[in-house]
Design goal:
Lysozyme, six-stranded mixed beta sheet, globular
Length: 229
């Protein structure tokens, strides 16, 4: 069974943004960390005006991946063996679309039509802004071309309307914090594949030490659950 390891978690995070306090997304939904909403069972409104430690943000993120998204991916490919690159690509696709169970490219791949599956994968490219992400996921699934560089774009300030302030964006290196979130410890090396050098514009900055978490550690997240919408 494919597990969520550092490479998988970093690859998916590289397509997302990070905000350490709760913010309103484009549809006005309170969101936090790396795309986490209260629909996950973890009430993110507790983080309104309360930035959290990077390790706590990532711990909840990987807990959500394992609890809600990875099972659906494993079910969609039940009976077939996925490489870790394929698992990471499918998980990223599902985290973004929520459609792994009904995606035609999955059915085509399972039927052995790799070329058709590759074409169908790119059918999920609307709005246009999602196209770069979809291309990278497609390349990862079909060509094992990883794209993460160990960093994520963090937004450090919010507007008066509680949306991320774009001018506050910065790239930070989250490899050590991700290892901690996954329980691997800071001594575990995480190396991006050699074919995916960092973008020249993606200068990574070490994360500053923010306030300590205001909630329980990852092992106790289940105590915060309520029915998913």
């Amino acid at each position: 069974m494919n597990r969520i390891d550092t490479d998988v978690a970093l690859e998916l995070a590289s397509h997302e943004g990070l905000v350490r306090q709760a913010y309103r997304d484009s549809e006005g939904v309170w969101t936090w960390s790396i795309g986490v909403t209260s629909a996950s069972g973890h009430d993110v409104t507790r983080y309104i005006g309360r930035p959290q430690a990077l390790e706590h943000c990532l711990a909840v993120y990987v807990w959500l991946l394992e609890r809600r998204y990875a099972p659906a991916v494993r079910d969609a490919f039940r009976g077939r063996v996925l490489t870790q690159a394929q698992f990471a690509a499918a998980l990223s696709f599902h985290y973004n679309t929520g459609a792994i169970a009904r995606a035609g490219w999955v059915r085509l791949w399972r039927a052995g039509d790799t070329a058709g599956a590759r074409r169908a994968f790119m059918d999920w490219s609307r709005p246009a802004a999602i196209l770069p992400r979809r291309r990278q996921e497609c390349a990862l699934f079909f060509d094992a071309a990883w794209s993460f560089d160990g960093g994520v774009t963090e937004f450090t300030r919010l507007t008066a309307g509680a949306t991320p302030e774009r001018s506050s964006a910065r790239r930070i290196d989250i490899r050590a914090a991700m290892a901690v979130a996954l329980g691997a410890g800071t001594g575990t090396p995480v190396h991006p594949p050699s074919q995916a050098p960092p973008s020249p514009s993606a200068t990574l900055h070490p994360a500053a030490a923010p306030p300590r978490p205001a909630t329980a550690p990852a092992a106790a997240f289940a105590g915060d659950l309520f029915p998913i919408r």
